[in-house]
Amino acid sequence: MQLKTALLSTAVVAALAGVAFHSARSDVPASPLATTASTAGSVASVAHDTRLTASAKHASSHIAALSDTGARAGSELAFSSTSPAQADTTSAAERARQLLRNAAAKEVNLAAADGFVARDVMIDRDGTEHVRMERTYEGLPVIGGDMVVHSHNGQLTSITQGDNMRTTLRPSLKPGISAEQARIEAGAKFDGTVASLDPAKLVVYARGGGEPTLAYQVGLQGARNGDQAPGVMSYFLDARTGALLEAEDHFQTAAANGTGKTLTLGNVGIVSNSVSGGFQLTDPSRGSGQTLDARNSTSTFSAVAFNDADNIWGNNTTSDRATAAADAHYGVAATWDYFKNVHARNGIFNDGRGVKSYVHYGSNYFNAGWNGSYMVYGDGDSSNGNTPLVALDVAGHEMSHGVNSATANLGYYNVKDSGGINEANSDILGTLVEYSVGNAIDQGDYLIGEEVYPASQGATKALRTMFKQDADGKSISCYPVGGFSASLTARGGKYDPHFTSGVGNRAFFLFAEGVTPQAGFNYTKAQLVCNNDTTIVGIGRAKAGAIWYRALTRYFVSSTTYPQARAGTLQAAADLYGNGSTEYQTVARAWSAAGVN
């Protein structure tokens, strides 16, 4: 910690002008995502074993980790906001707003009543500022109007945005139907039992590249018909006619120091909390994240905490309900450590706060997922030998959905390419978490969720195979001309994000490993690329991960397409290693080898 402080001191002094806080602006609406840092718990944690992650032993700070990748001096992170509310009150955010109203006005198609609310601020050691902005119009949120403003020394360097706001036209703000009518329409659209409906609120809907439309946004929670996945939806309805513009599904899935006697990792060290009478599966050292038993219900309200007298959790089999809990608890801790040690990220939302994980969710539920605020893990079904979906890379995958929602907020269903990039992002970061641990039983690989299948189904059986995802007969590994049609990216559709993630997964595999046939598979080099470029040499996982994370947090926005993801990762590679460097050229060739040019 002292070394990190010393290394950052000059950068922090240099960046003080960029992060100095000013009085909260009264004309900016409070962000719904605003959070405050949690206070430290008073109950001591108990640690009997320190065998958590290999990365923790080798990377004591973000600076050291980035140095291992040979990144350009000055590209390391000097400051990162910890909440949208904090981000919006920085001087960097105010500078970005001024740039948007002046130097960048034409590029962002500024209208007179447009406003901008900062959601995230990141400042590099060389003073380069990256401010993630949400657009408003007459105070209404603009859905799809987000962007990132990049500047240095007060001068605009670039704007990252999607294809949505390509006009200065704005809609009339006079609705044709009432808010209550919109709520009724939203409730009628949900295929299931509605548990709660939020009040309808007016927004400007600007996704899809068409003319912005006045819309009502209605949040809904409920139980789906014929599906145990939590129903967490946002409905966008045309405020003039009530017609459905989009049904946004917020449940993002994986298909998926006591001792933890886990199902997939053997015996591992985990951190629990000392409570009256024993111990509880809460980790005070990682934001008090907690693992609970959903008791095979699809309602988390009936969940109970895991408590234990001897701080030994599980018995390595499913006969003890704490076994799956130990896997999930360890996976969350390992993911937290990966993001903190490698990317200097303090939890999913960078606010030091942990999240809840619910194991034994549903009945015969072969899935795991992130609903926007917590994780659920099903116990599997007969197709996977009723093995709980608590594998290490699955936990990393789900938490990475949360990191995405706190940063780029890539769309999921019904938003062209971005859903596939969202899924690929979770697969990529979940894989890097698995590699960071170095567990002898579940070694790092480019298979997602292979440990959720019993050994009898084969060593290569997995939810996804990142280097050749189309081997499942449904996924796509090569980007088609024109991309993926938004109309076909719905849940279970031809271009469901779980199928289109194969393009991003292949590209990242080629970033890191090059054209390298994997043990246990009989694929030729030509089968691992889309363009016959079989001589790509990888740059290694550390560099590839640094490039991907930088692109996610600085250059991806909610509607990023695969060609824009290519541009974002190339910019990240140029930032870290130089324009035209070996790393830059490898990233370019890898995307081309996945059909993205």
Secondary structure blueprint with pairings:
Layout: H1 2-19, E1 45-46, H2 54-58, H3 62-68, E2 77-80, H4 84-88, H5 91-101, E3 114-124, E4 129-137, E5 140-143, E6 147-152, E7 155-161, H6 179-189, E8 192-197, E9 201-205, E10 213-224, E11 230-238, E12 244-249, E13 252-253, E14 258-261, E15 267-270, E16 272-275, E17 278-280, E18 282-283, E19 289-293, E20 304-305, E21 307-308, E22 312-313, H7 321-343, E23 356-361, E24 368-370, E25 374-378, H8 392-406, H9 418-437, E26 447-448, E27 464-465, H10 497-513, H11 541-554, H12 562-577, H13 582-593
Helix pairs in contact: 7-8, 7-9, 8-9, 9-10, 9-11, 10-11, 10-13, 11-12, 12-13
In short:
This protein has 597 residues and is α+β, with helices and mostly antiparallel strands. 29% of the residues lie in helices and 22% in strands. The strands form five sheets. Strands 2, 3, 4, 5, 6, 7, 8, 9, 10, 11 and 12 form an eleven-stranded mixed sheet that branches. Strands 13, 18, 19, 20, 23, 24 and 25 form a seven-stranded mixed sheet that branches.
The profile of the biggest β sheet is: 11 strands, mixed
Roughly how many Å is the radius of gyration? 23 Å
Mean pLDDT: 88
Low-confidence stretches: 1-17, 21-65
Number of alpha- plus pi-helical segments: 13
How many distinct beta strands?
27
Structural class, from secondary structure content?
alpha+beta
Gap between N and C termini, in Å? 42 Å
Shape: globular
Percentage of residues in strands: 15-25%
- Helix percentage range: 25-40%
